[in-house]
Amino acid sequence: MYLTQCPACDHRVSSQAESCPSCGQPLRAKTTNGGGITFWGVVGAVILAIIIMSFE
Ligand SMILES: [Zn+2]
Protein backbone atom coordinates (compact mmCIF):
# COMPACT_ATOMS: atom_id res chain seq x y z
CA MET A 1 0.00 0.00 0.00
CA TYR A 2 1.32 3.41 -0.91
CA LEU A 3 0.12 6.93 -1.49
CA THR A 4 -0.56 8.16 -4.97
CA GLN A 5 -1.78 11.47 -6.27
CA CYS A 6 -5.14 12.19 -7.77
CA PRO A 7 -4.59 13.21 -11.42
CA ALA A 8 -7.44 15.70 -11.18
CA CYS A 9 -6.78 17.60 -7.96
CA ASP A 10 -3.35 16.34 -6.74
CA HIS A 11 -4.89 15.21 -3.49
CA ARG A 12 -2.91 12.44 -1.82
CA VAL A 13 -4.90 9.25 -2.07
CA SER A 14 -4.30 5.75 -0.80
CA SER A 15 -3.46 3.32 -3.57
CA GLN A 16 -6.30 1.18 -2.29
CA ALA A 17 -8.86 3.92 -2.84
CA GLU A 18 -10.99 3.39 -5.92
CA SER A 19 -11.81 7.06 -6.23
CA CYS A 20 -10.43 10.31 -4.91
CA PRO A 21 -12.08 11.19 -1.57
CA SER A 22 -11.60 14.86 -2.35
CA CYS A 23 -13.05 15.23 -5.82
CA GLY A 24 -14.44 11.79 -6.64
CA GLN A 25 -12.11 11.19 -9.59
CA PRO A 26 -12.03 7.45 -10.28
CA LEU A 27 -8.44 6.25 -9.83
CA ARG A 28 -8.66 2.68 -11.03
CA ALA A 29 -10.66 1.96 -14.14
CA LYS A 30 -9.46 -1.63 -14.20
CA THR A 31 -11.36 -4.46 -12.56
CA THR A 32 -10.47 -4.59 -8.90
CA ASN A 33 -11.48 -8.09 -7.91
CA GLY A 34 -8.44 -8.56 -5.70
CA GLY A 35 -6.21 -8.41 -8.76
CA GLY A 36 -2.99 -7.52 -6.96
CA ILE A 37 -1.95 -11.04 -6.11
CA THR A 38 -3.17 -12.38 -9.45
CA PHE A 39 -1.28 -9.69 -11.34
CA TRP A 40 2.04 -10.42 -9.64
CA GLY A 41 1.40 -14.14 -9.92
CA VAL A 42 1.07 -13.78 -13.70
CA VAL A 43 4.10 -11.49 -13.94
CA GLY A 44 6.16 -13.87 -11.83
CA ALA A 45 5.09 -16.85 -13.93
CA VAL A 46 5.97 -15.06 -17.19
CA ILE A 47 9.37 -13.95 -15.90
CA LEU A 48 10.07 -17.44 -14.61
CA ALA A 49 9.11 -18.94 -17.99
CA ILE A 50 11.39 -16.49 -19.82
CA ILE A 51 14.29 -17.31 -17.51
CA ILE A 52 13.77 -21.04 -17.92
CA MET A 53 13.53 -20.77 -21.72
CA SER A 54 16.59 -18.55 -21.95
CA PHE A 55 18.67 -21.24 -20.26
CA GLU A 56 17.77 -23.93 -22.74
ZN1 LIG B 1 -9.09 14.34 -6.63
From TrEMBL:
Identify the keywords attached in UniProt to this record, alphabetized. Answer: Membrane, Transmembrane, Transmembrane helix
Task: Report which superkingdom the organism of origin falls in.
Answer: Bacteria
Origin organism is Paenibacillus arenosi
Q: Which InterPro entries match?
A: Znf_ribbon
Keyword field contains Transmembrane: yes
Q: Give the stretches traversing the membrane.
A: 37-55
Know the name of this protein? Putative zinc-ribbon domain-containing protein
Residue limits of the Putative zinc-ribbon domain?
4-27
